[in-house]
Model the fold of this input.
Amino acid sequence: MKLSFKDILNKKELSRDDIIILLNATQQESKLLFAKSKEIRLKHVGNKVYLRGLIELSNICKKDCLYCGIRKSNKHVCRYNLTDEEVLRTVKYAYDNNYGSLAIQSGELDNNIFVERVNNLLIKIKELTKGKLHITLSCGEQSEETYLKWNKNGGNRYLLRIESSTKELYNKIHPNNETHSFEKRIEALKALRKTGYQTGTGVMIGLPFQTTENLADDLLFMKEIDIDMVGMGPYLEQKDTPLYKFKDSLKPIEERYFMTLKMIAVLRILMKNINIAATTALEAIGVNGREKAITAGANVIMPNITPAVYRENYMIYENKPLPSSKEILVPEKRIKKIGYKIEWGDFGDSAHFKKRTQK
Ligand code: SAH
Done:
């Protein structure tokens, strides 16, 4: 007997085929999906929304990912590096405004100067904030030694997106060389988890060549590696990148947006107590994208607090929103209106991590 959409939603274990059916939900069916993910979210992580003040440290990158606007070969980008003073001033803004945590993101470099710089910043941030802010790092693939060092000096969480867990697709969206090896990325994720970070990953949704099956496999990958947190968002084409030539083969932006919300919802059903971020890419294409993501199951938002003069240079994709006012940065009223609550001053650690490390 063929199960109805509702029956599938109520199954204890979802198979790959079930996940594909859920991801292919129509608008009508998606209401059931979002109702289910909401129920699970409220039960396991409550109506709380955690903040990460996002600091984009530098757009200098040694990588050449075929989708990314700040790839090494893009000559149209004005490269910048925040000074330590600028970083600390931004950190102080977060601290004074009662953020419980920060996310430091950067183009990928692994030379000694960069490694030491991040390390020193971690030490200074800890001093400045008396350890009252937890820190997520998102600075790409590093040696296990570097991961250890940063963790020791205050990096609590690390976000390294696998981008796509399907090797063939991964290889289509990255140059095929040692610097962009799929295996190395997987190894890095394993090293992060071993080192003791709350470990996060994620994928882009609506990439050229990507199928619903690939997306179902991405969710299963996250479950398989038992990830603590996820940040995923729609792929947005960027005109100065090689992948731009496939723009006519892409799904319409509304579909990528809708699929992202369904991915968040199914992930919440699969991994009940992890942290899921409502990413800025979602905000870039949808009106109130972050609130929709929260309704679908996300419990983290990452207001971009990078000093305004640099923000326009961290253009990973086009139409990246450039927030200014406080209510745009943290849409507290709008979040309250839909029944959720910003947890000011809370570290917002992953409940999944706490549970797996308490054992
Ligand atoms: N260098 C760091 C993170 C910087 S970029 C690292 O490797 O972890 C942060 C994320 O932006 C990437 O992981 C990627 O998933 C996303 N991104 C890059 N280009 C994008 C695009 N064109 N559309 C949507 N997301 C993109």
Summary: The two ends are 41 Å apart (CA to CA). The CA atoms of residues 80 and 310 lie 7 Å apart. The first helix runs from residue 5 to 9. The chain has one domain: 46-263+271-357.
